[in-house]
Each structure stands twice: as structure tokens, then as C-alpha cells.
Amino acid sequence: MNDDHKLERFGDFLRKRRLSLGSSLRAFCQSFGEDPSNWSKMERGLLKPPSSVSRLCEMAKRLGIEEMEEKQRFLDLADAERGRIPEDIQKNKRWVSHLPVFFRTIRGEVPTEEELLKLADMIREDMAARDEEAR
Amino acid sequence: MKKPDDAPDLRVLGLEDIRKEAESFRRLHCGEGLPVDIDLAVEKTGIRVVPLPRMREECKKDACVSPYGDTIWVTYDPHTNSFFDVRTRFSMAHEVAHLILHRPFFEWMRGRYDDNPLDWVREIRQQSEQYYASQLEREADEFAGRLLVPVICLREQFNAVLAEVGSTVQDLRRHNDYDVRNRLALKIHKKFAVSVQCLAMRLLLEGVYPPLPDSSGEKG
User: What is the ipTM of this complex?
Assistant: First the structure.
């Protein structure tokens, strides 16, 4: 997984994926009985992705996402969109390099001790920097 | 009503100019097949298609280009699925026409946008009618018609229907032109995914039926 993938917005991914199938919003929603207004809102980041994994898997299937790694990325992006990562964190390369730990954590997987310590260090440093800026 | 001094002067476009623009757009973005996939073509150019609830009911419009030309709003009613009807396909092609043919008008109107899409739709409709009468709409309709109903395909379909029913143009001319055109349109319109009315209009405007005196089309 490279950094570009981590930074991609769920909605952009949805739209790109749909268009790569050669399917317009109208054709896609008509084929699958999706509500075009809601789908369009999700693509534009105005509506959060569903939290139900089975619904997300259904969406992934409709988008032709079958490979395990890509499906996981799709679920990660949906998770990240629901609790959207603030822009400043996304712009910070150090944070971005630790996002896989974040994704695993929100999926309920246990990160290693070392990963957690690094993450805690970063949070401490970031908070200290913000305090400094505030002064 | 007199046009404000800062409103752009838009020259009246000739039929052939409009048709050339439509053909170019189709060649560039739509591929060969029927029906013309106007939705996908629009989205592939980077324009977003956004369903806008109740636009048809509240603004008497099926589609509209946003002030910055980056979005086409299409009417949407979850109860009637209006987003999916063939009228909205024509309306999308019509809005593409405005973007291509009438960009200065949109740029002039932009300052009036106040963040409410439905207000923008009402305003742009009113200003277009007030200062340009129906010129802009007529031109956009011609573009949309030529884009969705390529004339070569229309002639092919027309000749196929004649062959199927074993008739000639001379046979048809013994009947009322309007009735014949509508019956032909009823048989052909689904191929192009346009309404019967739109197809009947294309048969007339393209001189396919009734044939123009100098038409190169099928003479029977």
C-alpha cells in the first residue's frame, strides 16, 4: 500500500472505480437499484459511507472489487471517511506513514507494542508543537 | 426587455455550425454505439452529474449547468425515478450545448449565484428568456438532437423500417405527414433512447421525413 492510496478520499475512489467500469452514474444506479442521489453524495463526500460491512462488501462487489487487498483498502477508506482524518494530519508525512497502524486499530486488530509506542510518541510531539504554536 | 450593457452579445448560430459542434463532441467523447452514452461522456470530461431533488417540479427544468460549468444538475425525484427517464438524457445533452455554445452567458451570470442551486436554476432560466428570447434554447436543442440522434443512424433506421414494412416513401406520402412521422418515431425512438417527440422532430429537422426536395436520403 503506498501513500497515495492512504490519502485518497473514499468518494474519489468510488467515482474513479465506477468510471473505470465504463459506467455512468445513471447506468450504474439503474443496474444495481442504487439511489442516485445518495450515491452521488457519497462520491462527493457529502454522505458518510455505510457502517455495515455487508453493505460495503455489496458495494465493493458492484464496483468489481474482488481482490482481497483492494477490498481491504476499500473498507479502510470507508472507515477513514466515517471518522475523517483531519487535513493537517493527512498533509504530515510522518503521520501518513503511520496510517496503516491507525487503520488496523480501527479495524479492531491489535498493533505491535513498538508501533503503539511510536504512535504515542508522535501524538505527544504533535500536541507539544500545537501548544508551542498556541503560545 | 433591453439587454443590460454588460450582458454578452451572442451571435445567432447557423444550423450547420451547431451540428458540426455536436458531431465533434460525439466523435471526441461518445464513441460509435447507440444509444449515445451522454452521461458517461459528460462524466469523462470531468463534469459531475448531480441529482438535484425536485428541480423539475420547482423550476420546470430537467437539468442545468452549475455557475462554474463543473457540474450538471439533473432533476431527481425518488418517487418517480425522474433521474432515469429519457427526458433527462436530452436535457443533459442540451446543457452540454450551453457549455460549448454559450459559455460567455454563463460567465456573465456567475455573479448572481448565491449558493442555492434551485435559485440559480430559476434565475438563469429567467435571464436567458428575458434577454435572448428563445435563441439559446433553440440552439441547445438542435445541438442535443444532433448529438443523441446521429443523422446517418437516423437514415439507416428509417430505411430499415421502410424495408421491414415493405413500403416506399411515395407510399407513406399518401398519408398525413404528421401521423406518419409519429408512427415512424414510435418504432425507432428506443434505439436512440430519446422520446417519441424528440425522434419525430429529428425526422422533420433532418429532412428524413418528409424528405427535403434536395435530400440525399432514401427516395423510395
Answer: 0.83
